[in-house]
Amino acid sequence: MKFSRLFYDSRVSFNKIPINWIIISVVVGLLSALTIYNFFYVIRESFRVMTFGFANLPYTLTEEDRNSYNLFFAGLSVIFANSITINMLLSRPSNILSWRNPIRRRIVNDQVFLNFNFTYWFTKMGLCFFVFSMCCLDFDFSPYVGVLSTLLLLVLYFDSWKGLIRIFHRNRFKVQTIHFGVMLFLTFGLSKINTVNYKSIDKAAVESSPVYALPHSNFYDEFQFNNNPEVTINLELLDNGKLEIWYYGDRVTFYDIPSIIAAERASMREELIPYLYVRISADRSLQIKHVKTVEKILYDIGQRNIIYNIYNEDLLSHRFEKRGVKFKISHSIKNFNPDLDFIMPPSPQIEVLLNYSQDFKDTLKVNIGTVIKLNDSITYKNDLVKKFKTHIASEILFEYSYEKECVLQDYISVLSSHKIAVNELRKQNQIIFKKDKWDNSRAYRNEQNKLKLQFPTQLTEKFN
């Protein structure tokens, strides 16, 4: 006894733990698990909200991914709360171990450093991945979360036991099995709690960056060095056949489009107004008449530069890179009569500037619908580029004729093939090339202007 007093008592006395202290420790542990889990949950949803406006696609989670993340956060919370509970039980009021016993100090230190060291590491890694996923990284965590998160949780759990096994000499595996079962039960139960209304966040994410089945195209214009101002208008056809127009998360009507463009023009310098582009995002199955209605309104207010957004098949950049096909609204849009309850009066000043006439030697008629015809001859989409290249010239006019069943995808397929044919002819006849991507010499620009006159993209439209 004197020897034990001089050094320490190495015995483990579980009977010395007061019942009320056990209850307090367990309650504090459960509250800690709930608090830590809620913290992780709120941080995740906060980062999702912060991505609004940064990416082209909304950052939403599937139910399977959400459950995986919830399980991982719940497992971390329960393991951290377990360490807090152990620290309280082994604190001085319980006297389960002598305060001089090095085993006690080792267990307490292990539990403390387990929490703080892992939290420090996880915070650094988590912030790096979250921030980069917001601005410049598109990484799918789903295939890796299940296996890696499970292994990580197991390592953390067994690490929390490396000191405890020294005080459980009898029935250690039985105690550890029961403890592991309780931890699993708490983890699955905690993961079912949704701290915030994630469905409303998903809805807001979709409204800020609507998801559309954009048309596919083999051609798109380069925009990486283009600093022209842009306005995006989204067209969405509902199941009931009603068309909705969205402008940066706000539902608008056809009547609001002129005021939207006027507000954008008023917010920029006057010399930049002619370089303003209007992006049109719409489902590829949308009837072309709805798109041409928007074009008619834009033309009447003197806005001719538009961009059709297309689907980006590059999975590494599809969230952050908008691909599109540029188009200058044809003067023949004046002959289109949209089904509207108002008429926008044309701007006389713009009409004078845009009014011109040119004599063409020949006209290539392009019928666009479920079947594409060139001069009444059925042509497959894969043959359009080859056919167009044989007709493109300064004295040839292309006449696009839209059938009633024509949808946006049919139109984009023809327009993109037309642009591909024009670009290939220009490259075949090009003599002066850029030395680098920054080269913009006078000789290069003069030749490009000549090639544009020799192989133009000139077309008129006919509406059936």
Structure, described:
With 464 residues, the chain is an alpha/beta fold. It has 13 helices and eleven strands. The strands form two sheets. Strands 3-2-1-4-5-6 form a six-stranded mixed sheet, covered by helices on one side. Strand 4, helix 9 and strand 5 form a beta-alpha-beta unit. The N terminus is likely disordered.
Largest sheet: 6 strands, mixed
The backbone outline, from C-alpha atoms, is: elongated
Report the C-alpha radius of gyration, rounded. 34 Å
Helix content: 40-55%
**Count of separate DSSP helical elements:** 13
* End-to-end separation: 107 Å
User: Which structural class is indicated by helix and strand composition?
Assistant: alpha/beta
Major sheet: arrangement of strands: 3-2-1-4-5-6
Runs with pLDDT <50, length 5+? 1-7, 347-357
Strand content: 5-15%
- State the oligomer: single chain
Average predicted confidence as pLDDT? 78
Order of helices and strands: HHHHHHHEEEHEHEEHEEEHEHHE
What is the count of β-strands?
11
Descriptors:
single chain; 464 residues; alpha/beta; six-stranded mixed beta sheet; five-stranded mixed beta sheet; 13 helices; 11 strands; elongated; disordered N terminus
Task: Summarize this entry quickly.
Helix content is 47%, strand content 12%. It has 464 residues and is of the alpha/beta class. The radius of gyration is 34 Å and the shape is elongated.
